Amino acid sequence: MNALAVLGSRSLEVLRGFGHAAFFFVDLLRALPAALRRFGLVVVQIHVIGNRSIVIIAASGLAVGFVLALQMYYALVTYGATESLGLIVNLALVRELGPVVAALLFAGRAGTSLTAEIGLMKAGEQLSAMELMAIDPKRRVLAPRFLAGVISMPILAILFSVVGILGAYVVAVLLIGLDAGNFWSIMQEKVDVWRDVGNGIVKSFVFGIICTAVALYQGYEARPTPEGVSYATTRAVVISSLCVLGMDFVLTALMFSTP
Question: Is the N end or the C end of the chain the one with fewer CB atoms within 10 Å?
């Protein structure tokens, strides 16, 4: 009976947390029109969130392109299908690896930054001071950052895929010696702009919403202590990563279930 009571208490606590997060997200959406009216704040945050993430996104995309082309070549050469290397690399990047890996990197770099920033503002009572001055922190602080994250994530995912394809080209054509014309022509012939590239962009847009919302929520609800901010930052990365991986499966099943 004791164990049952503990299980029920924990379940109620989890449900309460989900409900609180849902109300927070709704309030964030309601604050977006105010952020759009002051788009200069959004532009500043796009620079902070997106522009400062370019280096790690580009470097990771290049490395993934290198390794993916090399591994695919070793697998395809056994069956004499090396002419399909460009197609496989392109589909893997624009459908899956581009949106997913870019989102995980985004959560680790920009998400932690957002959580720590909001958490420190709460610990320093800056958010409380805004409320005392009749300024809604969600409209002035959170909404511009949320909008900037949603805008930046698809751009970073596209950059990841483009750099990854260029990295695969370097390995496949310049190092291995495959035909450059075949590498590009099979992409143009087999890759569908709407079904493949478009669905990848939709994925990255959804991942941007998840990563940014989770990061802001964890920062806003962090305990106003150094340990609380540290815990919230770690929690934001873990929750964002798990949500991205789970949502990726759901979106893939919905987008590519029919031929």
Answer: C
Q: How many domains does the chain have?
A: 1
Assigned token pair, 67? 């390794």
d(CA 119, CA 215): 10
Burial of 130 (0-12, 13-18, 19+ CB in 10 A): middle
Asked if the structure places residue 33 within a domain, the reply is no
> Is 184 among the domain residues?
yes
One DSSP character per residue, 169-222 reads HIIIIIII---HHHHHHHHHHH--IIIIIIHHHHHHHHHHHHHHHHHHHHHHTS
What's the predicted TM-score (pTM) here? Answer: 0.90
| CB proximity list for 204: less than 8 A, separation 6 or greater | 98, 99, 102, 103, 153, 154, 156, 157, 158
Share of the chain above pLDDT 90, in %: 35
Q: Is residue 147 part of a domain?
A: yes
Query: Any idea which residue has 């919230």 for tokens?
Result: 232
Evaluate whether residue 28 is within a structural domain: no
Residues 6+ apart with CB under 8 A from 215: 107, 110, 111, 112, 114, 115, 118, 149, 236, 240
Amino acid, single-letter form, for residue 186:
I
| pLDDT over 80 (residue 5) | no
Burial 151-163 (b: 16+ CB within 10 A, else e): bbbbbbbbbbbbb
* Distance, CA of 153 to CA of 218 (rounded, Å): 19
Domain extent, residue 133, equals: 54-255
**Whole-number Å distance between alpha carbons of 143 and 87:** 39
